[in-house]
UniProtKB/TrEMBL annotation:
Residue stretches making up the HTH cro/C1-type domain: 7-61
Coiled coil: none
UniProt-recorded name of the protein: Helix-turn-helix domain-containing protein
PROSITE patterns assigned: HTH_CROC1
One Pfam match: MLTR_LBD
Length: 266
């Protein structure tokens, strides 16, 4: 894709006028108009400023630089790179620290990187090919052989999942087919969409939070997400606490302790 068209697409996707973007980037509307028409060729620093002003993810900033004919500014390391060892240690620490509540780490596509042992309660009964490092958690959530048969509010939860798949059109089309015939309930949702999940410890009502590395300048690190499940009522909290004992015993002898992980030491 040529740079003027790429820049214009990024700007319009964020509903910014040329004047808005020019002010953010510290330039003039006239110069920005020349760039988007191909009459002016911006320098590397200007491309970086425009990408930052558009608040693009690091991957898209690199793509914009490539479109302009410049080398990427942000590295994309493998997760097992020695430089990311502190990241792996931090993620394992957070996953263990979140027990007895389930927590997991996924990449940009939603593929599982790591999870703590409490996540086993979420995945119980799911087909083996939908579970474990490398499996897609969105497919796990909505697939008929995944969590879908155990989700009490599949229509609402399904729409919540689908809303997160804007950049994955093929996966969105696949998963939309699993929930397209379901009508959301007319009941009020409350302050957040909970997950109503049947389990061997009773029905769980769970809220989710998503954490990212806010200061990341590596593409891989910036795209990691840590998703944590929290109890939405006292009964769920008690069930998760009761389940933690057997799961901790079952996990004994596995490394890293209390996690199911694709994180590897250098």
């Amino acid at each position: 894709m040529d740079f003027p068209r790429a820049l214009r697409r990024c700007r319009t996707r964020r509903h910014l006028s040329q004047l808005d973007l020019a002010l953010r980037a510290g330039t003039t509307q006239r110069y920005l108009s020349f760039i988007e028409s191909g009459r002016s060729v911006p320098g590397r620093n200007m491309v970086v400023r425009l990408a930052e002003s558009l608040e693009l993810p690091l991957r898209e900033r690199n793509e914009l630089l490539l479109a302009a004919g410049y080398a990427p500014a942000y590295p994309e390391s493998s997760l097992d790179d020695p430089a990311l060892a502190p990241v792996r240690t931090a993620l394992d620490h957070i996953l263990r620290g979140h027990l007895p509540y389930p927590a997991l780490v996924v990449d940009r596509a939603g593929d599982l990187i790591a999870a703590n042992t409490a996540f086993d309660l979420i995945t119980e009964g799911a087909a083996a090919e939908l579970v474990g490092p490398g499996a897609n958690i969105y497919r796990l959530a909505l697939h008929p052989h995944g969590l879908a048969p155990r989700i009490g509010n599949l229509a609402e939860w399904g729409q919540h999942i689908l809303a997160r798949l804007g950049h994955q059109e093929d996966l969105h089309a696949e998963l939309a087919g699993y929930v397209a015939h379901l009508e959301p309930s007319a009941a009020p949702l409350g302050f957040a969409v909970p997950l109503h999940l049947r389990s061997s410890y009773g029905e769980l009502r769970l809220m989710t939070t998503v954490t990212t590395f806010a200061t990341a300048v590596d593409v891989t690190l910036a795209e990691l997400k840590l998703e944590a499940f929290l109890p939405a009522d006292p009964a769920t909290a008690a069930a998760l606490l009761a389940a933690a004992g057997p799961m901790a015993s079952a996990a004994a002898g596995q490394a890293p302790e209390n996690t199911r992980s694709a994180l590897t030491a250098p």
